[in-house]
């Protein structure tokens, strides 16, 4: 707590004035351009590595940047009352947000634990909320990792039943440079995109082409951001010489010229 209190003083002496100016600009009418689900890991600073300003994005954080799928919910069963579906409704249906991002990262402790539980099932602790969270929401991700490790860098299929337009293929770590846990982390990001598309409340937005979902991955040791390219079927590093290609793909997925897509033209959104 002492470190936090000293940090508040430093904030007051440095960036507070600039932030207050941003608060005054948007006042009581923020209009976020995107919703980001990311991990609660203390090394993940999404507003820093996207250079987002006050009011630019909603951010939801949890262990492993997981979004439970909707297979247990619907018109004839219990309505979900967890944070992640509520955030989707608030941002997309009530807030008009068009871009949802899932951002995972290297050396994710949640993914390391999920991999460990799979490697040693007897380690599962029935009294652990974390173990239950990982096992319930990570089993599809683990299944795809097993397929990746068995078949090598072959395309994995990610299929959406509710929104078939959101189905895609992915080649994870084509040159086998990542350890298994980081492969798992990238697969987990993509599985969450399918989980998001499973929510019936978003079907209309997907059918109308007014909602776009994107996968990002951050290397916490190199400080590099990656974006999943559906056209290239793999994660692509975001840097100066790849930006134009990623932006072009985004324009095609938005299906509108750059000048007619304010999210892009105003520079509020990292391409996906």
Automatic annotation (TrEMBL):
What GO molecular function terms would the record report? carbonate dehydratase activity; zinc ion binding
Q: Lineage from the top down? A: Eukaryota, Metazoa, Ecdysozoa, Nematoda, Chromadorea
* Binding residues annotated for Zn(2+), in chain numbering: 39, 41, 105, 108
User: What is catalysed by this protein?
Assistant: hydrogencarbonate + H(+) = CO2 + H2O
* The protein's Enzyme Commission number: 4.2.1.1
What binding details are noted for the cofactor?
Binds 1 zinc ion per subunit.
Protein name, as recorded:
Carbonic anhydrase
Which family is annotated? Belongs to the beta-class carbonic anhydrase family.
Purpose: Reversible hydration of carbon dioxide.
- Which cofactors? Zn(2+)
Q: Where is the signal peptide?
A: none
The record's InterPro entries line, in alphabetical order, gives: Carbonic_anhydrase, Carbonic_anhydrase_sf
Question: Does the record carry Metal-binding as a key word?
Answer: yes
Keywords on this record? Lyase, Metal-binding, Zinc
Native species: Pristionchus entomophagus
């Amino acid at each position: 707590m002492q470190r936090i209190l000293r940090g508040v003083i430093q904030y007051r002496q440095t960036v507070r004035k600039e932030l207050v100016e941003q608060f005054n600009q948007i006042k009581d009418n923020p209009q976020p351009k995107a919703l980001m689900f990311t991990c609660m890991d203390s090394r993940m600073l999404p507003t820093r590595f996207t250079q987002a300003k006050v009011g630019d994005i909603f951010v939801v954080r949890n262990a492993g940047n997981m979004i439970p799928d909707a297979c247990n919910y619907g018109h004839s069963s219990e309505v979900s009352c967890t944070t992640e579906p509520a955030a989707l409704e608030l941002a997309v249906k009530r807030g008009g947000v068009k871009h949802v991002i899932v951002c995972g990262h290297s050396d994710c402790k949640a993914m390391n634990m999920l991999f460990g539980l799979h490697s040693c099932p007897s380690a599962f602790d029935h009294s652990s909320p974390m173990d239950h969270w990982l096992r319930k929401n990570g089993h599809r991700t683990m299944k795809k990792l097993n397929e990746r490790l068995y078949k090598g860098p072959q395309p994995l299929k990610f299929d959406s039943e509710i929104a078939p337009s959101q189905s895609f293929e992915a080649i994870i770590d084509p040159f086998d440079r990542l350890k298994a846990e980081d492969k798992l982390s990238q697969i987990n990001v993509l599985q969450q995109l399918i989980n998001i598309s499973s929510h019936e409340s978003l079907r209309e937005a997907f059918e109308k082409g007014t909602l776009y979902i994107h996968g990002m991955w951050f290397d916490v040791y190199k400080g590099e951001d990656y974006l999943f390219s559906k056209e290239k079927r793999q994660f692509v590093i975001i840097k100066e010489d790849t930006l134009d290609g990623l932006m072009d793909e985004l324009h095609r997925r938005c299906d509108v010229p750059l000048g007619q897509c304010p999210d892009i033209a105003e520079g509020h959104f990292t391409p996906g």
